[in-house]
Amino acid sequence: MSGAIRDLSQLLAQMKPVLQDGVYALVCVSHDAERMDLPALVRIREAEGWTLVLEESIAQQAQLTVLFRAAWITLQVHSDLQAVGLTAAFSTALAQAGISCNVVAGAFHDHLLVPFEDAPAAMAVLQAMQQQAANLSVPS
């Protein structure tokens, strides 16, 4: 893929985390559920059922049990799907700040689902990581 970045230092320096508007819900529905017509943003088939990520209001309207109430952060950097270390770097930094993180990798960007109430702190951690990496990559 053209434009995809594989180098970890460049990925960190160019992360550009963006907090998406809204509240998101992770739910699980059975394999034979009639709920598959819901406008999910992510669908993952597991042995136990379908995990869906959708807007919280849609989950509530459908009377689904919300397993995780999340804020959605997108890393704007175009990460190569074979890049090594990006997930480990940001998940370690978030863990050190006491913030859980569920990751969905798209073809172009990584998407982080963090507890909704921790979104400002998560953004601060990610922005500090990016700034530190950018400062290290500036030639002297």
UniProtKB/TrEMBL annotation:
Residues 71-127 form the CASTOR ACT domain. Pfam families: ACT_3, ACT_7. Gene3D superfamilies: VC0802-like. Signal peptide: none annotated. Residues 5-70 form the DUF2241 domain. PANTHER family: BLR5128 PROTEIN. This is ACT domain-containing protein.
